[in-house]
Amino acid sequence: MIDEYERVDNDSPWKEILEAYFPQAMQFFFPQTAALINWERPHEFLDKEFQQIARDAEQGRRYADKLVKVWQIQGQEIWLLIHVEIQAKPEEIFAERMFSYNLRIFDRFAKPAISLAILCDTHLTWRPNQYSYNYPDTKLHFEFGTVKLLDYQNRWTELEESDNPFATVVMAHLKTQQTIKKPGERKTWKFSLIRRLYELGLLEKDIRNLYRFVDWVMILPKALEAEFWQDFKELEQERTMSYITTGERIGYERGQQELVLRQLQRRVGELPQEVTKQVQALSREDLEALGEALLDFAAMSDLLNWLQAHLNETEN
Length: 316
Prior knowledge:
This protein has 14 helices and seven strands.
């Protein structure tokens, strides 16, 4: 079943693609706000500042959040807080958390932020966009911008005709959701979306960036992944292009790597960061060997012993 191949970490590709194409993201999802911004002046990602106001990591939820400094056409500086809600389960306190982040930014940095949310879940009626309370002498009404990716299901032709990178992002996201437990159908759509990148006549760097996103979210079982790569190589040969020459390394091996890490966590528990890095540094052959060996692991010590034995073999 394809459930075994679902990604644990889907915030990373969103963070990467938002950084690579931030102006396009704003123009695609929030055109009214984008129209206020002077895109000829460089925007700045305020990762350090965001870490000072974000406290949700301890809750175990994954977010792809970005705090960005931009300049208005009139010359004033403004901050944008972009939140990508990746988790499929609606959250009752979501609107309160959006208000809380906005307030923390103003409190710590004396900067009003434009708060925007991209909702990636599958619940059609969950559409938080405001937080308020009302008492006789005190009232508050806070609204934030919201985009629901599910709505693009009815705008598929519009997505196909768009050359904005985020049209591809939305299509990959929707087809990933629609093909859970349908690996064959997912393989077909994955190939179709990758082929579309070439048909759009995009620059090589754009094909590579979007390929990385599609490949990461549309993970396939091992056998179908091999079939996909064969089809993909034939596509590049037909078009006399070899843009994704490292495709198997950054795609197939990365999928294999995450699957092994996930199986290890199920076997021996949460992995220390240093151990995770050791596993990530393994070659494809060593990953396959670890994938077989871990079936006999019962404790963290088994993994550590295996890694130490492997290190000794390498050194010798």
